[in-house]
């Protein structure tokens, strides 16, 4: 029962990882850009929700709406003022911009939201027992909301005209533009989606951890997820998130008492190295084939 409880707990945590991983993948699929500031995006989003609750006195719905509007505006402003100016520049320039943005967001959040409680209260029922396995109510609710986001993003990519355009851009940007697809508009849509997913992920993580565990660490936890599943694969991100979540939970229960605390985080990176040796593109990633 102990092992079953660890697996269930890890799978529920993996659902939250998957939401952040989707924010990573949608940007990469549309622009081939790696965003290393996702943890900071989730951090600022969670602080905005908390500020709406504790400072503005809004209900949870209002706080989420304000935070969503703020993060979408931030995403669109970042895309318009920074990313468009870097079009055609080396990839390392884009990477350094996201790292710098993450540092700026982390420092600004510490100043702007100083003194504001970080807790996001969410009325959830107590622990459940399913076939003898205890399941935390807050984690179950968070996993259900995360699952809804996963379904919505999957439909966006595979069941809408916008998704068709985004997949065309992912395959060949020049060909997509030649067919009349507005590249800048669709890249802006992906960044707006990053803003919304950041609000969901930051809120769920804060609810589950009570605000005691840094939201910014989500970026570090999700990096092995997206590499493991494949940088351009939505399905791979979901599978990778579940694998990493279960691995961390099992390692925490069985290996941390023997090897010392913190090994659970290291275990996911060890798995990542092993997978990359066998399959450099990840479990579901597609190799890039170019005619020379």
Describe this structure in words.
- It is a single chain.
- This protein has helices at residues 2-31, 38-54, 60-83, 91-112, 137-159, 161-171, 173-178, 183-209, 218-229, 234-254, 256-259, 263-278; strands at 128-130, 133-135.
- The protein has one domain.
- By secondary structure, it is mostly helical.
- A hairpin with a 2-residue loop joins strand 1 and strand 2 (133-135).
- Strands 1-2 form a two-stranded antiparallel sheet.
- The chain is globular.
Order of helices and strands: HHHHEEHHHHHHHH
- Provide the helix percentage: over 70%
Oligomeric state: single chain
How many strands, which pairing sense, and closed or not: the largest β-sheet?
A: 2 strands, antiparallel
Number of strands: 2
Counted by DSSP, the helix tally is 12
**Strand portion, in percent?**
under 5%
Global outline: globular
- The radius of gyration is 19 Å
Structural class: mainly alpha
What's the rounded overall pLDDT mean? 82
Quickly count the domains.
Answer: 1
Distance between the termini: 56 Å
> Which stretches are low in confidence, meaning pLDDT under 50 for 5 or more residues running?
none
Order the strands across the largest sheet as they lie in space: 1-2
């Amino acid at each position: 029962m102990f092992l079953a409880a660890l697996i269930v707990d890890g799978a529920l945590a993996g659902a939250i990882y998957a939401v952040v991983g989707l924010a990573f993948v949608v940007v990469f699929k549309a622009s081939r850009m790696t965003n290393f500031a996702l943890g900071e995006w989730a951090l600022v989003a969670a602080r905005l929700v908390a500020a709406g609750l504790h400072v503005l006195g809004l209900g949870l719905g209002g706080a989420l709406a304000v935070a969503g509007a703020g993060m979408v505006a931030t995403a669109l402003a970042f895309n318009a003022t920074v990313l468009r100016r870097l079009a055609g520049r080396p990839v390392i320039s884009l990477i350094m911009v996201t790292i710098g943005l993450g540092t700026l967001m982390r420092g600004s959040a510490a100043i702007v939201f100083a003194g504001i409680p970080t807790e996001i209260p969410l009325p959830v029922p107590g622990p459940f027992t399913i076939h003898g396995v205890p399941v935390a109510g807050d984690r179950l609710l968070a996993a259900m909301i995360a699952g809804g986001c996963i379904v919505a993003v999957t439909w966006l990519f595979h069941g809408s005209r916008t998704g068709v355009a985004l997949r065309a851009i992912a395959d060949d940007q020049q060909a997509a533009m030649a067919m009349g697809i507005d590249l800048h508009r669709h890249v802006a849509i992906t960044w707006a989606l990053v803003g919304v997913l950041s609000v969901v992920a930051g809120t769920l993580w804060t609810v589950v951890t009570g605000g005691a565990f840094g939201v910014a660490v989500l970026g570090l936890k999700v990096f092995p997820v997206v590499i493991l599943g494949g940088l351009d694969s939505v399905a791979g991100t979901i599978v990778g998130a579940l694998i990493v979540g279960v691995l961390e939970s099992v390692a925490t229960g069985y290996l941390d008492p023997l090897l010392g605390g913190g090994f659970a985080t290291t275990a996911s990176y060890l798995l990542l190295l092993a997978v990359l040796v066998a399959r450099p593109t990840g479990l579901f990633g597609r190799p890039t084939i170019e005619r020379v």
